[in-house]
Each structure stands twice: as structure tokens, then as C-alpha cells.
Structures
1.
Amino acid sequence: MNKRVLRQIGLALALLFGLSAGADAADKIKTVASFSILGDMVRQVGGDRVEVVTLVGADGDAHVFSPTPADAKTMAGAQVFFVNGLGFEGWMVRLEKSSGFKGKTVVASKGVKPLTLSEEEGHHHGEEAKVDNGQEEHTTGEGHDDEAEDVIDPHAWQDLANSKLYVANIRDGLIAADPDGRAVYEANAAKYLDEIAKEEIAVKQALTTLPEQRRKIITSHDAFGYFGAAYGLEIIAPEGVSTESEASAQDVAKIIRQIKKEKIPAVFLENVTDHRLLDQIARETGAKIGGTLYSDALSESDGPAPTYIDMFRHNIATLTAALSS
């Protein structure tokens, strides 16, 4: 076989595989996820059958996100829109309406027992909030009620037990949109749930080593309420559950007094918030900056928290390193 024939065969094969790859891409289920943590979960469950576009990307703040015309265009072509719910995406309903989205909205947190935060007292409550989470996209998509004494904490993914509900809701949403992919989605979800269960054991084991008196920390905004409730840490934050709110001088002064009185060992920065307030608190109290925690967004792919599981591993390593001594 001469070189000319071999070259022609090679070109034919390249064309064939190119067309096959294009067809596969065209056949993928088009999904949109509201923020990076949820986008990663959808990728883990959807695998190669799903195309995922994330609206609020790495290190992005979904609380202050403002959709663009390009986002609306992306939404218009999507078959499934995955959202956290619990009031996290205050811009969600407006985007759905302006884009003409005709697909299915899946609320990933459906079934979660929400925590509420008393804004005046600044601490979490475990009682169930009055939210119909299954219909969330129509009832609470515009965000929190600023007049209410208690607000719903939307950061449910910070408890790995809740993420199991997220995975189940994502799996079921994908099966509804793509019944032919049921076996793939069920297998991917089962594998992912096993990884989450192993990480949950590792988290609990790591945190049990911390001395009781060092289980109090300061973070920028109140994104770790579920984490604290699940794993036995007291989390104090100058801001509320949304980064849109600003801490008052009175709130900051109260926290500074509390740090000094209770000898709280460390304050932790967040990847989605301004560091200046915590820098000030650290300077005035002598508490050390314990590092950066990932709360509402993942890192870039070359960062320390490119996936949901990696985020937990990074956060636990950062916390234990700062609090163990």
C-alpha cells in the first residue's frame, strides 16, 4: 500500500471521527447550572451525555450576580436549568422570563430541611423553614425578605449529608429529560454518592481531633451554618447569609468583643468576599488569619478546590491546620 493511499485512508478516518464527535456533542443534553458548585455536581452525574454551562463561575459570587444578554441566550437553548433554590438565586425568575426558557427547572435542594438565621441574634436555628422547596422557583426565587426576623440559609451544600439529596435530584432531573440515559445517570450518581459518603467520614474524623475550646471561628459571611451544625463548629460572621448585606459598625464591635472574651483563635477569609473587614478584625483582636475557605464557589481548575469534593478537602485541611494548635 503506497503512501498516497495511506494518506487518503488517514484523512477519511479523521473526517469520520470528526463527524462522530460533532454528532455526539450535538446529541448531548444541554443544561445550565446556576453556580460552579452545582455545575460540578451536574457534571459528575451527567458524565459524557450532558453539556453543562455554569452561569456564576469559579470564585464568582451568586448573591450579587447580574445575568447578561449572553446568559439569557444560553438559557433559551437549555433543556434543563439546575438551581440551588432556598432563595440563593435572587435573579433566577427574572432570567427565566427574560430568556424565554422553555425547559425544566430542577431545584437541587428539594427535600433539604432548611436552617434559618436570626438576623438580630446572628445564629442559626434548626427548625424547618416555611418553604415549599419543590415549587421554589416560583415562590422564593426573588431572594430574602429583608423585613423578616428570620431568613432562610441557602448554603445547604455545606453539609455533605444534604449533597446526597442534591445528587438524587440532579439524577432524577436528568433522567426526566433524557430517559435513554437512565442507566448512565444512575451508575454515575451511585459512584458519586459513594465518594461523598467516604468524604463525610473523613471530615468527621478530622474535626473530632480539634480541641473543644478551639471550635469557634469567624468567616466573612454566614455561609457555613450547615457546616457548623453538621460537624460541631460555632461559626460567627459579620455579614448575614448574603454578601449583599454589610456589617454595621455595631455588629463588628460586638464580634471584636466576643473574640477577645472567648479567645476565638482564627478568622477565615472566603474566596467570594472582600477581605478588608476580616483583616481589620484580625488586627484589632490578635486572632490569626487561618486561610481561605471556599464557600459559594469553586476555584479555577488549577486551584485548590476545582470540584465539590476537593472544596471539602481543602476547607478541612485549612481549618484543622489553623485550629489544631
2.
Amino acid sequence: MVLFPRATITAHERAELRRELEWEGFGLIAPGVFGHPAASAPVLNEILKELKLSDKVFVISAKDLDGFAVRPIRELVDECWTLQELAAGYRKYFSHFDPVLKLLQSHVAMTQEQAFQIRTLLIHSFRRVTLRDPHFPAEMLPEGWPGHAAYALCRDLYRHCYKQAELHVMDKLEGAEGKLPKAAPAFYRRFGGLT
């Protein structure tokens, strides 16, 4: 949780901090109180340093207390994050790219350039949605969360086109020193492993 009392930061600083925290998936719990169930401490630290607010806010870790009959944390998610908009983005992504995957699964041939175009659009579109996702644990998400299906679709479609796309990149692009080097081993670990 990030707490910033009104007396410690200006209205401009509050607006900037709010924008950055919301971009990282934090939700507004109450005025001056933002929370995230799985925030990245290094990213949060970088935001606070960049905005010069490290010494003006409080960053704390919170958890449910055992033995209390309290509202389920799931209700807090519904009240503080607009998951409906995010879910709509994932559904739209799915509706755009599922027909492409079905087409490729029917063994329609594609050129290296087409594979590159598909991969580029696929990842660009997925990042536009997933970068706004706070990536909550599954138990905090609504049943049938479309983000899981969108990720699986992205993974499957990427696996269908990455080889041809890489051949296009290696054939058409050059660096300052000529031909590009082959993809690093980390490339092949994407989406749980590319074969």
C-alpha cells in the first residue's frame, strides 16, 4: 500500500503519483491510499525516486488478519479496480486474433513477411491490454476471467508464427555491424518455451 497524506505532497505531485500508480495497476482504496496485491517493489521505488517523493509517502505491506469476520478481499477488488474495462479489452483482443489462429491451424500457408506482421500486431495488441492489468492472483479475479484465454491465444498464435517471423527479421534487417545475431536463449523461453 502507498499512503500519501494531503499535507505532505502538492496537488500536482498527487496527480502525477496517482497516474503512475494506476499505470502500474494500483487501485485507489481511499483518498491518499493506493493498494496492489502483488506490486513490484523495485518498480514502485523507481517511481517514487523519479517523482522525488520517496521521503513524502508511506509504503507499507498489509494482510488479512486471521480470526476476523471481515468482507472478502474480492469485494475490495471490485470496488477499487475497473476490471470490467480490462475484461472488455481482453475479449476484444480475443475476438480479433482467434480467427487468425483458426486460419493458421487449418494449415493455411503464410509467408515470412505475413508471419512477421501477425507476430508484431499480436504482441503490440496484447501489450496494450496486459500492461494495464494488475495481474491479480486467480482467486481475486472474477470467474471466467478473459485474461487467461487471451494469454493462451497469444501464446498459441505466437508459437505458430515465430519461426517464419524470425526468418523474415534475419533476412531483412541489419544492425550497425551488418546481419543481426541469432536470437538469445531467453527468446526461446517465451510463453513457457518455444520449440
3.
Amino acid sequence: MLVQKLDIILHSVRQLRPMPSSVTRILKEIDGEQTTAVKISNYIGLDQALAAMVLQMSNSVAMGYARDCTTIQEAVMRIGFKRLKTILLASSAAGPLMNRLNGYRLGAGELWRHSLATAVTAEWLTRRLGYSQTEEAYASGLLHDIGKLLLDQYVVSDYSQMEQFIQQYRMPLWQVEEKLLGIDHARVGGLMAEKWQFPIELVDSIRCHHVPSLARSNQKLPAIINLANAIASRIIHMPNGLFSNEIHSEVFNILPIRESDADLLQAAAEKELELKSGS
């Protein structure tokens, strides 16, 4: 039965639509030597949904601008190419992240809220820890739970049992998913990221954000996401226990912090999130 469930889930990953050609074209254009904001803006303007997303992100409170941005070109210049690449990578999942997840009992916008809090916390941690790949950390935080989007349909019938394992046996969600489904949301998210041809470090940070030492190339990035995920889960209280607020012990070996620093980091990150949300 478990093997059958796993086969069905893996088949669903294989059946995922590839990243839209409009997105891959813009990503290639951004990396080109002759690229300009005008050229990128024209490409974005051809995709109505993508244009709306770029404008929304450029006008978010987190960007810190007093004046609203009304044109795509201004939005591209305000965001910058690095953050734009993150938005493009996230575009395949951003819409579904805002939806209701019936299997996990999450209301509309709740997974997005957690993901955005994790992204902002991860970005803040890179500056705090002197880690140079700030944008990669933000993207990883934003996308670390995309596996839940695909697994959601398969956990509906197992939700009561999942809740029992979490509450009665104090098992983290990802281990419960492995026990009941044969695979956890982090590994599914990594497979989805591979399907969409994300960079290997981003794939690993999604796949290994619960066990950072499993990363193939860079353990620091998934360790930062593990820490950011735990801090965000503690600060943004979700309606059920399906978000891990446990920091893996490996994090304190991989990153230049001690276990005793966790509470101080959480308090400082909470202030950062308050500033970003404008509260």
C-alpha cells in the first residue's frame, strides 16, 4: 500500500507541467550580457499574470517605497534583476501557495504567509551570519514548502492519523509524511524543483531543509532555511501543528551559531518581520 502511494506521488511529479516558456525565456535574457530593463519589461508585458505578479511584488510593503509603482519597467528597475529572477522562479508556485490546502487544513493564504515569513527571515539571517548568497536564501525560503502543494491531495485521507502522530508521539511532520506516504514534502519539493530545472543549490535547499547535511553541494543554505523555517513557525502562529518549529541539531555545526543563540535570533527576526509587514 505504501509503495503504491509513493508510485502515484512520483508519477504526479513526472506529470507536472514544465516551467512556462515565457519564464524560461526571460530567465535566459536576464543572464545575457546585452540585457536591459526595457527588453526584460517588454517580455514580462507579454504575460499578463507575470506582469501582475511583478507589479504586486514591487509595490509590497517589504520593498519600503512610499510611492506606488505603475509601470512594468519601473517595477523591474525597482526590484532589480536578482530579485526578479527569484520572482520568476517562484511564479510557477506562487499562485498555488496562496490557495487553500484542504489536505493540510490550511486556509487561503496561510501557506504563502508562512513561506514569505521564512523568506524574509532567511534573507535577514544571511546578513546576520555573513552569508553572501542573500537572494538564493530568499528564494529558498519562499519555495521551501512547495512539496506540500503536490502532497496536499494525498494527505486528505491521512490527516487524522498525521495529527495523532504529531501530537501523541511528538513526530515532526516530515517524518510522519515519510511513515504514511513513503515520502515527505521536502523531497517532493526537491523533485518539483528539478523538474523545473532550478539551480542545484536551490533544489538542495528545498529538498534538505529539514536535514541540511544531505545537501550535495552547500549545506549552509539548507541550514539557514531550516533555522528560518523554525523561527518563522514560532513567530507566525499557524492554526495547526503542521509546521515544524524545531531546529535540527546539525544547524549548530554547519552555521557559526550556538544553540543558546536561537532565542536571541528569534527575537531579532521578529522585529525584522514587524518592520517588513509595516506593523
